[in-house]
Amino acid sequence: MTLKSVESVIELLSQHGNSQYGGEAVTQSEHALQSGLIARNKGYALTLIAACLLHDIGHLLHHLPDDAPDQGIDDFHEELGAGWLEQNFSPDTVEPVRLHVAAKRYLCSKEPGYLEGLSGPSLLSLELQGGPMSVSEMTDFENNPYFESAIALRRVDEEAKIPGLATPSPSDFKLELVASFKSKV
């Protein structure tokens, strides 16, 4: 683990997070920081707090327009973000990031009222991401060792859309980021 790697994550959030978060009333950075703060306040493990903070990092890595979903484009941000993170971060951080879209699809099928509670932008992205899961997809997802972490992250994701909420800065999450790095053998 290098401080340079932690700093590069913080820099990405700080310098490139000012774009709008889909059609929501917060920016990418505000959403990320709110997610990290909510997870921290819930007492989650440091690795899951980092996952919550970084779950949408893929949106900052692609070069698609902010309105890509409105154009019918799924940016596969969960895979892009997880691929970027797995270079340095532990699976306990990477896998919930990879699975947070699947968690939304799962909850839409499993939990009465969840689908109806999604925001307009989240409904649009759900359609692009495959819609609610089938029964067999749900069974496979439930058997994933990161299932519970992905569900926890997804619930934080839905909460973290509060305009004007005061949050810590990206650098205030150094502890969680450092704790989430892979052990070097």
Structure summarized in a few sentences:
This protein is 57% helix and 0% strand.
* CATH fold descriptor: Hypothetical protein af1432
SSE sequence, one letter per element:
HHHHHHHHHH
Rg computed from alpha carbons, rounded to a whole number of angstroms: 15 Å
Number of strands: 0
Terminal residue distance = 11 Å
* CATH top level label: Mainly Alpha
Beta fraction of the residues?
under 5%
Q: Give the CATH superfamily.
A: Hypothetical protein af1432
Decide which structural class fits the backbone: mainly alpha
* Helix fraction by DSSP (H/I, runs of at least 4): 55-70%
Count of alpha and pi helical runs: 10
Outline the low-pLDDT stretches.
Answer: none
Biggest sheet descriptor:
none
Mean pLDDT: 88
Q: Which architecture name does CATH use? A: Orthogonal Bundle
Number of separate domains: 1
Instruction: Identify the overall geometry.
Output: globular
Structure commentary:
By secondary structure, the chain is an all-alpha fold. The protein has one domain: Hypothetical protein af1432 (Orthogonal Bundle). Helix content is 57%, strand content 0%. It contains ten helices and no strands. Helix 5 runs antiparallel to helix 6. The longest helix is centred in the middle third of the chain and has 20 residues. The radius of gyration is 15 Å and the shape is globular.
